[in-house]
Prior knowledge:
Elements: E1 4-8, E2 15-16, H1 28-33, E3 37-38, E4 43-46, E5 50-51, E6 57-66, E7 77-87, E8 90-91, E9 96-102, E10 111-120, E11 123-133, E12 139-148, E13 166-168, H2 174-179, E14 190-191, E15 197-204, H3 215-232, E16 236-237, E17 240-248, E18 253-258, H4 266-275, H5 283-287, H6 292-305, E19 311-313, E20 331-333, E21 336-343, E22 365-372, H7 383-387, E23 393-397, H8 400-415
Amino acid sequence: xxxxxxxxxxxxxxxxxxxxxxxxxxxxxxxxxxxxxxxxxxxxxxxxxxxxxxxxxxxxxxxxxxxxxxxxxxxxxxxxxxxxxxxxxxxxxxxxxxxxxxxxxxxxxxxxxxxxxxxxxxxxxxxxxxxxxxxxxxxxxxxxxxxxxxxxxxxxxxxxxxxxxxxxxxxxxxxxxxxxxxxxxxxxxxxxxxxxxxxxxxxxxxxxxxxxxxxxxxxxxxxxxxxxxxxxxxxxxxxxxxxxxxxxxxxxxxxxxxxxxxxxxxxxxxxxxxxxxxxxxxxxxxxxxxxxxxxxxxxxxxxxxxxxxxxxxxxxxxxxxxxxxxxxxxxxxxxxxxxxxxxxxxxxxxxxxxxxxxxxxxxxxxxxxxxxxxxxxxxxxxxxxxxxxxxxxxxxxxxxxxxxxxxxxxxxxxxxx
Length: 417
């Protein structure tokens, strides 16, 4: 797995070898068994594991090689770093490997920095790093302990049951860094309901208008929404269907739609997000920004009016011949509609149309509002006013753990349907 490589003060002649070349095989376990060595001085820092928005435990390994440690090796340098974890007495097969070739000496004060992100299941691990210079044959071996504690009073204790022990993250930027399409394993999120359910996930990818010029808030908001969407797209409905809609409320656009989701169409979603410039709002959109909440109201209304796919129930009717129902025809059951509205708090412009969507009779629906605060000043939310008549259940979220608790409560509700 390719890791990230940062080159501080390194000449342009530096090349990342493992981008296009297969790394050489080294006797990793034999070198580690021989004990720690520092033929090439380096330092290793292991970040404290934390729960990520993807609902997996994340840690980061940072290896720094000072430029002066390489001066005696001769040019060119061909450095390879290999990192693996051991659980108990067993080495985990997954490894992070990266190599770099340098044709020039590092300038004074320059250094190589290798940064490797990983998703790791709870456990007590040994972290082993081997740094090997191919031309001189010199190597360094460093060992550390890593404890990934289980989540105390975990509301979703089985969510990681199908995940591998460790997954190293690829070097990525932008939406790929936030969504992590390289992760092929899935969370265990079964949804078993007695009645058929049509689950609609509506995600707003734009923060409140007050942050229209803030690149940092837009980046945090996009990362949070993508992470939550990746988790929610892994819900496995045994008696229903999952549908996803991505919205841009500031420009009144539907960015992306996918019906009957089994696997989220990431390439199409990424393209839609990238084409929506987060820092530029067209003049026409600004002139009509009082209509932004009305746009959301119309999207929600259209989803309520969309005919839900009838699901055939094979349960016999009590009114069948002879009163035992054994010969009755299957009956079509209208799916119960569940909406998961995912957004950061939205404050609309003065005079915006905040009239609530009217509820006409029994909507045969339930609405959950996952409101994730993405900045300290992101306090006020007028989106609930638009949904007021639908009596949404709102979850105020400020951390991945808040999201986990909310998800557990929603799943518990769905299991009762």
